[in-house]
Amino acid sequence: MAKKDAYQNRIELLQGTLDMLILKTLQWGAQHGYGIIQAIRTTSSDVLQVETGSLYPALHRLERQGWLSSEWKQTDANQRAKFYRLTAAGKRQLAAEYERWTQLSAAIASIMTPEGDPL
Amino acid sequence: MTRRRRDRELQEEVEAHLRMAIRDRMERGQSREEASFAALAEFGNKGLVKEVTRDMWGWASLERLVQDFRYGARMLRKNLGFTVVVVLTLALGIGANTAIYSVTQAVLTPLAIPNAARVVIVWTENAKRDWHQFPASVPDYEDWKASGIFSSLGAVADGGFNLRLGDRTDRINGLKVTPEFFTAMAIQPHLGRAFQADDVKAGHSEVAILSDKIWHSRFGASPTVVGASIALDGVPYTIVGVLPKTFPVIGQEEIYEPFVFSADIVGVRGDRSFQVVGRIRDGVSLAAAQKQMADLETRLSRQNSEDAGNTVALQPIAEAAVEDIGAVLLVLFGAVGFVLLIACANIASLLLARGTARQREMALRSALGAGRWRICRQLLTESILLAVLGGLVAIVPSLLAIRFIVSFHLDEVPNFDLIALNSGVLIFNLALSVATGILFGLAPAWQAWKTNVGDTIKEASRSHSGGVHQRVRSLLAIGEIALTLILLVGAGLMLRSFERLRKDNPGFDPHNLLTVRIALSDRQYATPEKQTAFFERVMLQARSLPGVVGVSAADDLPANDDIHGSGLYFPDRPDPRPEDVRIVMRNSVTDGYFTTMRIPLIRGRYIDATDTANSAPVAMIDQWTAKRYWPNQDPVGKSLKLGKTKPALRIVGIVGNVDQGVLVKILKGQVGQVYLPVPQQPRPAMTVILRTAGNAESLIPAVRSLVRGIDIDQPIFQADTLENTRAAGRASQRLATSLLGSFAIVALMLAAIGIYGVIAYSVGQRTREFGIRMSLGAKRFDVLRLVVRQGLVLAAVGIAAGLAGALALTRLLSKLLFAVNATDPLTFIGVTALLGAVAAAASFLPAWRATRVDPAIALRCE
User: Fold this and answer.
1) Chain A contact set for B1 (CB, 8 A)
2) Domain A9-112 coded CATH 3.40.50.10540
């Protein structure tokens, strides 16, 4: 399918990683769905492209789990949009996921580039 | 937050997203059109995104279920004809299952005995002597009782009473029980008391206990019945108790009396005449009790030569209760299961055909954002909706079937009165409906899953169907044919078995024979002379009834289930070892018996009027006995003894073999038959046999009033023609035959519809092909042959599979068959021919239609 080729140079998100990215993005302040996608793309230098079909279910699920809250506000450009904000529980969740992520990436890194490996 | 508000909010959220994306792009210099297009493309399938997002709302699934159901209901309403056909098919299939389940749940309702697993029947077994589930003797009973293995051990024997209430006398089934029987059952009477030790002691007064059933039917459920006096066999008995409704019935007993061992059976090891029921002592497991009883019996059989080779088997009473009906239920459940499977296959096939037509609808829905899962679930919901509708409608046929089953009065079925459409049965009905819906719904769901949206839309202009679906439908039809064949073989075997019962030459002429049984109370007719005189009077008066051409009487009837057996000894030969003693059946008959029954004399003479109580004791034997025990000799003039110490009987004649009762044959194979003259071997209970010129049944009222006129206390019972008695067999077999027969017919109809559907559809698909063939010169007959052959190939494959299945499965039936082998070739051939013919007919109809195709129109269409 044609659509698939367009994504070939992007990295598929590991399962569960999207949650962490959303929480992290929202750490800087409330944001709407479109804004979150843009933020992740810019921050990752166009490597990570979150699809709407993944983002919106994730947002609604995180809200239901109590890690996010939402409210309708005006954007800078004076448009109405639904803004998501990190709750206290969400902040704790982010810290937990971040810790897990650090451990995991350190573990993977130590396998991929052992000490003394020229790579 | 309401669903609607949430939906609107999600919609707004998506719109806001798109607005921001468009605005960003326009700021980067794109035109409005370019920006909108790109933003929409980037966003992806709006419907799908909303759909998966909605999934995250907790209660979404329930909402969607309602939505699916609404949509499904709409679809079913739109295709009313289709819906009606499917619902009716299902109603038959599910209804049959529901009815059989109602029997099963009644039968499997646990007995109301506390700790029922500890209550066992103690059977005597002897492999060498062909004894299976043999009754016990008084010495056995006393030894077992003394063993300490049972906390209480009761003796139980069948009995019967002539109950007179007012001027009406009826034969009532009774049970003689020792007081320990009630303690073993551990159920207290609902009113009054159980039997006590005093009730069986010398000088006891006559007491009786009523079943709940007779208490209601004959005593108006009167609470003051305890203490009242009733006439049983012309003797006053005091009612001391009424049992609760839940008290398990062993035979058909309605009145209980204390079992007092008569002097002639006390201390006699060889006289086995009653059953023993006991409760295993607390702390002893069933296995341990069985082991201890085996040890005890080994010791006993070593001490007593008469018990050589005996072993005992403990059978839990609950197991004994379902033993007879178990095979019938298994067969019936198999049959209704098959019917439902066939119905499912038919419906799946219909849905597949319709699914092809609905492909565009599905493609459209999927283009509008419905996921594959969603579409499959939608289709499954529709199927389940159909099945539940079918289940609801099924209540009507199942009620009818339950009424039909109840009308058979299966006395051997425990809890027969519990057979009803109760909540448990309704829950089963619902569960089965849902399961059925899922089963046949899998086909269209699978079809939808495999459908490629793009291809379908591209091909949408043509009503093309995948060859895969047609192949699946062919497979379904083959499966149906196979299952139908198995059912037909089962039903065919049962029918053949009954036909054999009726048509076989039984060795006598069973037409125009009326038989009525009379059991004289030995208290009113204490001496053989009095008993003989009574029957003489009945026979004398019966002879003058209009249309009666002959009257006689006998202790036993052929085709009766009762066995009166005796050990066969020969005065002129050494006594055999106890385990080598052969059993023969004995029957006391009056002098006219053989001429009334039309049993031919082979040698010697018939028992006649010269054989009186005072003349030399004589006997007659049948041909089989003569050949078996006097090979190459003439037995006439020789002697036999029925029991080691019994007097020698001189054989005066040999008669032709008579078909013995069904049960006797099943249990023991062929057994010898000895006839004795009634004056020398009088019996208090006899069957009077009337040969009539015309309709024998219409004489019953006349005989009843005749006997009543002689003695109002003696009712007639089991009044029926001998033909009916022979044909009837056991009620459960009759029920199984009629049910299996109807199920097989339903299956045959469904299978015919299934074949028809597949062939008709294929003909529809090949209209163009036939048009081309015919325009190229093919004859109508060629097309006909082409199509019919397709149907016959399906049938042949199905029949082959079915034959293999039938060979494997009909063995389960063998318990219910009589005089027919479970692999009876005639049945198998006949059924195959029938099914082949039906398949040919079912494919002929669409084939004939194919020949009507006008080539010009066929080529133009589409």
Assistant:
1) none
2) no
